[in-house]
Design brief:
This protein is α/β, with parallel strands linked by helices and 408 residues long. The protein contains 14 helices and 17 strands. The strands form two sheets. Strands 5, 6, 7, 8, 9, 10, 11, 12 and 13 form a nine-stranded parallel sheet that branches. Strands 1, 2, 3, 4, 14, 15, 16 and 17 form an eight-stranded mixed sheet that branches. The longest helix is centred in the first third of the chain and has 17 residues, at 109-125. The chain is globular.
Length: 408
Amino acid sequence: MTVLYRGIGELVTNDPSQGDGSALGIIEDGAIVVDGDRIGWIGRRTHAPEADLCADFGGSSVIPGFVDSHAHLVFAGERSAEFAARMSGQPYAAGGIATTVAATRAADDATLTGGVDRLANELIRGGVTTFECKSGYGLTVVDESRSLKVARTFTRETTFLGAHVVPPEFHEHRDSYIDLVSGPMLNACAPLARWIDVFCEKGAFDVDETRAILQAGIAAGLTPRLHAGQLGPGAGIQLAVELEAASVDHCTYASDADIDALSAAADTTVATLLPGAEFSTRARWPDAKRFVDAGATVALATDCNPGTSFTSSMSFCIAVAVRDMNFTPAQALWSATAGGAAALRRDDIGVLSVGRSADFVRLDAPSYIHLAYRPGVPLVRDVVAGGLHLPHQPCQPAHLVPSSNALH
């Protein structure tokens, strides 16, 4: 079954060989033919081939589906009181994670699954067609493995984050916890994950501990990614480059040397910036222009989590990134789509071109710029992933009709 999507006033492809030749590869008066779960053809409407069905998007803008490469969705409880305290002037520290750990350990699998389902549906309604999901709120062998089992029912991009913080029962025995994470916990979780992550920050894990844990994960067949540079400067960003991590996330306090290292590793390690975290903790804003001008590859992600970035809206993150992190609208959109795909080392998503996954979003707007220009407005009209309209849409999806009726 083929479907022709036409009436696309502005079609963002992220393919510089298309359309205007920019990084976004914008095609005016565009069209897409979906063949099964893949893009079978893309170009200007006037050159579109026939298809079995047709949908008219009425002049709207269409963008690639958002790729959220950093999310913590498996948890129980909430931390609104902690947020209110921060807004009253209390600084953020990594220790708040322990509150969520206690609630998550006490929750049954049905509660955890229901929470992920709710947040996954929020992501989908907001235009996310691929998302990563971490463990990290169980911090026991049983609770980390069951967190990943829950996550795997929603996404293939699962990350073992047993090294989120040292749980209270190990505060006097850090080395024992690191041995647990690098041994029995890793053995239980590696079959359920694609990635391994560590929170390399003051109050969590230092660079030597982080290196040991990540190297154990690599030996177990997992690919590293890393939290670093959120709470202050440190060696975590350069460690990520050294270990050829797919992504190093936060990077708020990246030094010039860190950015030079990321630039040199632009084909290997992505700098993922997380505007929701800075917004929710009143932290300093990283300057995206430093990364982009240096030639680093940059992604944007929600960092959806109950403590420091309880948002599932990539549109919100784009607007904040443009307003406060020195992104242009075009750079922010690219980073939230193609950049996220790079952070997940995926070449089938994030770009709209023949043979790639048919993942795209129709905006209720004439241009992608409205994502930043109209902050807080629900502009996502239709979400197509793998060639299918995803469920739980906020608006009625585009009406499909036989192609012969739609074209005349």
